[in-house]
Amino acid sequence: QVQLVESGGGLVEPGGSLTLSCVGSGFTLDYFSVAWFRQAPGKEREGVACSRLGRGGSTVADSVKGRFAISRDNAENTFYLHMTNLTAEDTAVYYCAKKAGSSCGLYPPPYDFWGQGTQVTVSS
Fold it and tell me: Per-residue pLDDT tens for 17-38?
């Protein structure tokens, strides 16, 4: 059974850092491209970062470039979102997702399996 389970969300002060984890099971991470999305209340789901299968590189959204980074540990079937210098605008539910193929995009439709989400709240 395919599963993606996020963890690492929580409450953090502005300027702080968090690392989210997404553990996959039921599939081999190395053969899939993966991504992180977020959705704030009343807003559409937004792509944050994606990582191409194997060692194909990554893409980070302009809105978080320089502050967020995506990484993956294929041996652990886990990928991560490293977030720094967080602001209130980063408050959202963060979702991890996977897709077949080597392309990597920041739009939801090609991603065919999603985690349940983890809440990140940036507030003092």
Answer: 999 999 999 999 999 999 999 9
